[in-house]
Amino acid sequence: MTVLEIKTAVREIDGCKADSIPHEVLTSSQPLLLRGLVSDWPLVTAAKNSHTEAADYLLSFDSGKPLTAMVGDASIKGHIFYNSELSGFNFDYQRLHLAEVLEQLATHRDSSAPPTFYVGSTNVDHWLPGFRQHNDLNLTDHKPIASVWIGNRSRISAHYDFPTNIACCAAGRRRFTLFPPDQLKNLYVGPIDVTPAGQPISLVDFNDPDYRRFPKFRQALESAQVVELEPGDAILIPSMWWHHVEALEPLNVLVNYWWRDTPTFLGGPLNVLQHGILGLRDLPPEQREVWKQLFDYYVFNPDPEHVAHIPEQARGVLNKIDDVTAKKIRNMLAQKLGH
């Protein structure tokens, strides 16, 4: 195992409380460590007492509905990743009840080489009803999606998320290694259509980086930031920041809150990227350049002057997009993509 030398720690912000997070924190363009943000949560208190108490507390909210777990044998050493040919993954998806997951974690608690159990991105309100009445952040204005992540020791390869994210360490410890969005070219990202959990991931193994195969990863490390969370701590991860996440204990529970700064009816930008690959990438270079100019004109640097000559009622999608217009665009695209 290689310990990466990262000189920059995530900036720490003092005094934030779960019920009053300052606006300048929520809108930060840099990662922020919010030490002790959720230290008053009952789950955190239980976790500080023992893994057993934390597990029992979670079970007190169990809906009884099976969840999806990623399960791998001891050989993967907690690394949720592809198989050697990148034709599939090094784990299996299994439908398990929460009690079964927690029982497996307890069974292998003292093992030096346990199988991996990883329950990722599971909606709190659906699977743990009532949990947020006692363990929550006051983010009502942002309408976040709250998810829980449960497992033993694991490593999640560097990836980005479109929404802004506050990740709260409720049990165990988590280490985050983060990179700004401009490090895409140095992180050697894998496929964008076949991924372990929906988002493209770096192919670099942070525990054993192959600098011959991935030489530019050294440059990425120059921009990296690192932080380790204890129970009660949280981290704000801005939209599109790459983050590699390690769970460091036999029982780890993370609760995170995702929100976006635009309405959900506008859809996901990754879908647009995939459509762009379909329709634009293989055009002749001179045609791609023309389309690059069109995207810049209408999408990346729109200006009211660009459409001022068109009567407002005739601008169609060139006006500000609302829910009704978004539905029309999606229907139009569905029809066109169907041919």
From TrEMBL:
The residue ranges of the JmjC domain are 117-274
Q: What InterPro entries does its record include?
A: Cupin_8 (IPR041667), JmjC_dom (IPR003347)
Among PANTHER family, the record links this protein to: HYPOXIA-INDUCIBLE FACTOR 1 ALPHA INHIBITOR-RELATED, HYPOXIA-INDUCIBLE FACTOR 1-ALPHA INHIBITOR
Query: What is this protein identified as?
Result: Pass1-related protein
Q: Which organism is it from?
A: gamma proteobacterium HTCC2207
Write the lineage as a comma-separated list: Bacteria, Pseudomonadati, Pseudomonadota, Gammaproteobacteria, Cellvibrionales
